[in-house]
Amino acid sequence: xxxxxxxxxxxxxxxxxxxxxxxxxxxxxxxxxxxxxxxxxxxxxxxxxxxxxxxxxxxxxxxxxxxxxxxxxxxxxxxxxxxxxxxxxxxxxxxxxxxxxxxxxxxxxxxxxxxxxxxxxxxxxxxxxxxxxxxxxxxxxxxxxxxxxxxxxxxxxxxxxxxxxxxxxxxxxxxxxxxxxxxxxxxxxxxxxxxxxxxxxxxxxxxxxxxxxxxxxxxxxxxxxxxxxxxxxxxxxxxxxxxxxxxxxxxxxxxxxxxxxxxxxxxxxxxxxxxxxxxxxxxxxxxxxxxxxxxxxxxxxxxxxxxxxxxxxxxxxx
Length: 318
Ligand SMILES: [Zn+2]
Fold this sequence. Notes:
Elements: H1 9-22, H2 31-42, H3 62-75, H4 83-95, H5 101-114, H6 116-129, H7 135-138, E1 142-148, E2 151-157, H8 166-174, E3 207-211, E4 214-220, E5 230-234, H9 244-256, E6 261-263, E7 280-284, H10 289-292, E8 297-299, E9 309-311
Antiparallel strand pairs: 1-2, 3-4, 4-5, 5-7, 6-7, 8-9
């Protein structure tokens, strides 16, 4: 359904560009450039009277602006209808407003020099403003804390992951394991246009990190299971594996970002992560119920008396 706020594609593009400027995604010097990129994606010839940046009075929620442009593109046959196709298309639109990866990386590290928190604040805000994290969808999630005899437990019902498009499921069946990018966590996804069975990634940004002498990357999860939910992934498409190096990397990460937590959701099927084919960890700015709970059994490590360690579950395996 069309939103009443816009009379034309020109209005909606001007509104989207105004949003990009207000959120600091693009400087106002890029209004013309960004408008033209958006018209190109829309395959739309603007009217001769169109003046980039002249319609700042238009202000509407991002979701409504994108919905107007999507409806128009579907009506003119520029893109197909359906949630997967629409998500591919609006990500392409937002990619026109998202700062280039090199720009993001250099801003991140110059803020990091002042404070790691300033750097992650910037990076997380960018992920939300660029619509990589679809905040209006994440807002539908239900989250609450429940009191149990084991302590307070966080419960989240994730309602923001899009339902799978049946055509996307069919496409996934036909495609072998050798597709590019090899998985959702491969760094090759950065800028990838996506396909029905793989999300568009023009708006994802990754920060390269060195952990335990290896190249890793930090990105945010588009689904935000908890505050500032980030994923730290290996540059290599190699299976998850918990070993001594895991701890070295995790400890180096919290040394760099003391206001973040990080952990592995295990290299085990069923109880572990949903993508075991690519080594990665889950981090973020959140104190989990497990960290708030009392320690059941303290673990002593002779020679490391400044380390507090404990176990929350049964007897420790040695
Ligand atoms: Zn991978």
